[in-house]
Amino acid sequence: MTNGADGGFSDDQIEELVAEMLGAPAARPVRWAYLYADDAEHMLTDLAQWVCWLVARYQLDGRELPSCWWRHGALIEELTGLWGAWRVAYEGQAAAAMAEWHRIFAETRERIREWAARTGCSALEHRAGTPQPWVADEHDEWWQAFTTGVREAQIAEPARSVSEGDT
Q: Is the pTM of the predicted complex or chain greater than 0.90?
């Protein structure tokens, strides 16, 4: 193994050494908001393959997971977390980790059912969610109203100091 140009090891070399000593690395969290478009597409494809396996293996129906799950950010986040936990449990861990994954699955399954019900989607129809108005406004009008209200409240009722007996 050769050293990098600066005399140290490259990231790939370090990862290889760690894998030799400790085994395969654990699944890392997926932070969708920070992925480049190509990386997000590949990750979503991998997630979709796993979700297809999950749906077939556990016979999930449209009431539990709508076919348009990939169009709902909350469902993507829930399924990504479940997928990460599955990879940790089934890729070289103790058998007890598999049982723990099923506990996690049961809890996540309940939340997914709740999200699926909130979407209003059916097996044949997708319904896009309605974002809060202040999200689309990028905080301008709503933020101004909020901060103005806070300032007015502070002027109307000045904060009492600790010396007045509040601790």
A: no
